[in-house]
Amino acid sequence: KVEVIPDCTILAAVGQGMCARRGVSETLFSALANAGINIKAIAQGSSEYNITIVIDSADSVRALRAVHSRFYLSETPLAVGVVGPGLIGQTLLKQFEEQRNVLREEYNIDLRVLGIASTARMVLSDTGIDLERWSEEMDSRGEDADMQKFTRHVHASHVPNAVIIDCTASEVVSDYYAKWMEDGIHVVTPNKKLNSGPLARYKAVKELQKKSYTHFFYEGTVGAGLPIIATLKGLRETGDKVNKVEGIFSGTLSYLFNTMKPGMSFSEAVADAKSNGYTEPDPRDDLAGMDVARKVVILARECGLDLELSDIPVESLVPEPLRNVEDVDEFMAKLPEYDTDMEAKMSEASARGECLRYIGTVDVANRCGRVELQSFPASHPFTQLTGSDNIISFTTARYKAQPLIVRGPGAGAEVTAAGVFSDLLRLAAHLGAPS
């Protein structure tokens, strides 16, 4: 049977000594696979000077650029879409602009932001948005946000490697991850909603990541730019047995208890943190502990535990009578009425020579997690923090007598954006950029 397949293109890799050089075929085929390009036919010349493949004509430009970049004949191009140009997204775009020439000249990476989308508006470009003027371009030639159109544009045929960076905290945006990855688009995000959301959805995306050539990076979901996820992965991948992960995961609550000194009430500490910009507009969003609980779920799943957010008991620091008060000012006004509860806990801890800290724990041995207020001796690492620093302790078979500690700024736009940027560069290395 003879069958005609229309709209095909022949792509050939030609060079002397190909038969004697290991990895040429693998490099060629992996470059195409990473770019989401299907091969219809393969042939190798008898002279072994060339490998020829047949692909869809629609993929020809993208395929050529993918192969060129993988063999270092050109730069590794990244078509980037940024969703959520809020504080973190704006900071990330600024870091892109500042580092763009260095990436191109020293690391052979051609980073092009082809789309920026907010909840209401988006701006698109075929060649790359001017990152010094993106806000003005959004105002002058932006259009109504359309996530389907945005996705199609970022996954343009002429750029082989597409990645969407989700800088939102939106459940709606995280629902797109699976579809993006099915379409061959890589995902980088500090958004915690997917990794701490319904277990079935999380497992589906992780399974999709294993089966496809798409990557999913999310270091920024825990500890901003601190290497928490990478450290945990490294421990497990090298055969270490993780017994417990615990720490101070909230920059807000870290600041709160680091600044609470004798004579300072809990309500005064909350008001101080709010006035200095360490809390959400409604401090109850921090005091309720759900953000810490999400981070506990993310780390628990990285440890192999199938936990849902509802499985994590959370000790809320919001007095129960104030949890449903609608007005934030009213909440702040009434909070001093409940200072005695926290004063009693602080006095009990102080009598033992200890300090209070708000802790998230993943107890791997007992396959559970929790979020609660605990007290620690003044010599404990958790009591040595300043400002809004985070600290995470890994107790493992190798780090048993003295746990492995990661400490540093765990909140803030600069460090969170830097963590996202680092994930993007890790993706570029997977795609063939020089490490």
Uncertain spans: none
In total, the number of strands is: 15
Give a quick account of the main beta sheet: strands, pairing sense, barrel closure.
Answer: 7 strands, mixed
Rounded average pLDDT: 91
Counting DSSP H or I runs of 4 or more residues, the number of helices is 17
Strand order of the largest sheet: 7-6-5-4-8-9-10
Outline, from the CA principal axes? Answer: elongated
SS-derived structural category: alpha/beta
Question: How far apart, in Å, are the first and last alpha carbons?
Answer: 48 Å
Radius of gyration from the alpha-carbon trace, in angstroms: 25 Å
Please bin the fraction of helical residues: 25-40%
The share of residues in extended strands comes to: 15-25%
In short, what is this structure?
The protein is built from 17 helices and 15 strands. With about 425 residues, it is an alpha/beta fold.
Give an overview in words.
This protein has 435 residues and is α/β, with parallel strands linked by helices. Helix 1 crosses helix 2, helix 3 packs across helix 17 and helix 11 crosses helix 12. It contains 17 helices and 15 strands. The longest helix is centred in the first third of the chain and has 21 residues. 39% of the residues lie in helices and 21% in strands. It is elongated, with a radius of gyration of 25 Å. The strands form 3 sheets. A 7-stranded mixed β-sheet has the order 7-6-5-4-8-9-10, with helices on both faces.
Could you outline the blueprint of secondary structure elements for this entry?
Layout: E1 8-14, H1 24-34, E2 41-44, E3 50-56, H2 60-70, E4 76-83, H3 87-107, E5 109-117, E6 121-124, H4 134-141, E7 143-144, H5 147-154, E8 162-166, H6 171-174, H7 177-182, E9 186-188, H8 193-196, H9 199-211, E10 216-217, H10 228-237, E11 242-248, H11 251-259, H12 266-275, H13 284-287, H14 290-302, H15 328-334, H16 339-351, E12 354-363, E13 368-377, E14 389-396, E15 404-409, H17 413-430
Helix pairs in contact: 1-2, 3-17, 11-12
